[in-house]
Amino acid sequence: MVDAENIRRAIHLMYPIALVYYWLPPDTYIGVGKEYIVVAVLVAFFVIEAVRLVTKFRMPLIREYERTRIGAYALGSLGIGIALVFFPLPVAAVAVCGMAWIDPLCHSTKEGGGYPVVPIIVYFDLAVLIFLFANYQPYNAILYGAVGAAVAIVSEAPKIKMIDDDFIMTVVPLIVMGALSASLGGLLP
Predict the structure, then answer these.
(1) What pLDDT digit, counting tens, does each position of 145-170 carry?
(2) Which three-class secondary structure state does DSSP give residue 137?
(3) CA–CA distance, 164 with 170 (Å, rounded to integer)
(4) SS3 for 71?
(5) What is the DSSP letter of 59?
(6) DSSP assigned state of 134
(7) Rounded CA gap, 101 and 9, in Å?
(8) Are 66 and 58 in contact (CB under 8 A)?
(9) pLDDT digit string (tens) for 19-49?
(10) Helical (H) or strand (E) element with 35
């Protein structure tokens, strides 16, 4: 039997599907800018969340502690939306894949051992591979990978009652890698 936790994990692992956004044409074949599609999806999620919170509807897959606050799926989607609309593909891919794949790893290594070393190493490896695939120079891939990994794992650790770590683990690395990029004169391939 499949339980709710396994379904949530499977959905979490599929978040990077959102990166298809970068391959869509600017007008999404229907004359609407693709960034408007992202905003429309986010509005839909937050309308669903508002209705759920106001009516106290017990939506499947929402954890008990999320019953009285915005759900992780909505906050995680907001972080992904920010990545898609405001950041270039390599940085967004690192942040989105890092949140989707490394956040569950953080939880399992906290329970089974290896935290935070294993998640940092895996995030770093993932980031470096993505940056190298995006034709970054190896030293830039290593620099951005190290910064992204450290910031992501540090930002995932604190538990902030009303903000899910899916949002924080996406947005904080985006901001820090963006600031690093700006300080170096732009994203350096």
Answers:
(1) 999 999 999 999 888 888 999 999 99
(2) coil
(3) 10
(4) coil
(5) -
(6) T
(7) 9
(8) no
(9) 999 998 888 778 889 999 999 999 999 999 9
(10) helix 34-55
